[in-house]
């Protein structure tokens, strides 16, 4: 993720979702291990070209990987803001 944005501190681990898509990230909770022995995914964000211009579209993911009506999602101006929005939604759920 972009450097120089230390004002927004992130709590969870973030990695590129796919090497060929540099503007797409997935977050993990290293303290919540799934049945497969891997950290649980908390959400994802990626750059999106919107009618209003570019933005970082984000989606939170419920811990047991089940769909819940009204799952939190949104658009932020920067990638760190999007990561923080995912983290806050994850902690709220």
Question: Rough shape?
Answer: globular
N- to C-terminal separation? 25 Å
Rg measurement, Å: 13 Å
Order of helices and strands: EEEEEH
Number of helices: 1
Overall tally of domains: 1
Strand content: over 45%
Biggest pleated sheet: 5 strands, antiparallel
SSE-based structural type: alpha+beta
Short description:
The protein is α+β, with helices and mostly antiparallel strands. The longest helix has 14 residues, at 79-92.
Tell me what the structure shows:
This protein has 93 residues and is an alpha+beta fold. The protein has one domain. The protein is 15% helix and 46% strand. It is built from one helix and five strands, in the order E-E-E-E-E-H. The longest helix has 14 residues. The model has no long low-confidence stretch (mean pLDDT 85).
Give the helices and strands, then pairings.
Elements: E1 13-18, E2 21-33, E3 39-50, E4 53-60, E5 73-76, H1 79-92
Antiparallel strand pairs: 1-2, 2-3, 3-4, 4-5
Keywords:
alpha+beta; 93 residues; 1 helix; globular
